Amino acid sequence: MDLDARLADITTLRVDAIVNAANSALLGGGGVDGAIHAAAGPRLLEECRELRRTTLPDGLPVGDAVATGAYDLPARWVVHTVGPNRHRGQTDPALLASCFTRSLDVAAGLGALTVAFPAISAGVYGWDVDDVARVAVEAVRTSTATGPTSVTFALASPRALAAFEAALAR
Q1: Most buried of 88, 100, 139, 150, CB within 10 angstroms?
Q2: Looking at residue 160, which CATH number applies to its domain?
């Protein structure tokens, strides 16, 4: 699997699947989640509401993933995952790693070959970006998902890009 990191707006990438750093409600929010919902248009929110009404009435658990259409985005699918929130005591790196591996599993199930990830749980969820980069790169490298051939870490700041470049160089 080819891995790279770049400074990029994940909502503009032409990949099969982009990963959304969602909250468990799946109904939009701030940061990457809000940007993805805004760029995808109202049908994404409608599909997420339907997921909550039917298969996920209690929301999406931390570390798990689910897919929707991408609607007005250039990607084909959005894979939503809920990262652990350090401010709520969710400090287990295995939960963070699960966001990446479960997202790849879901993407593989869709037939996605190219996947883009943000820095899940960095920022408002309180994880240090160096820790996120280390966990993310290790999780993707050791993933058993078959199908995806290319993973891009789409990062919103030069600091995040440097952290992911350093993790990829290890």
Answers
A1: 100
A2: 3.40.220.10
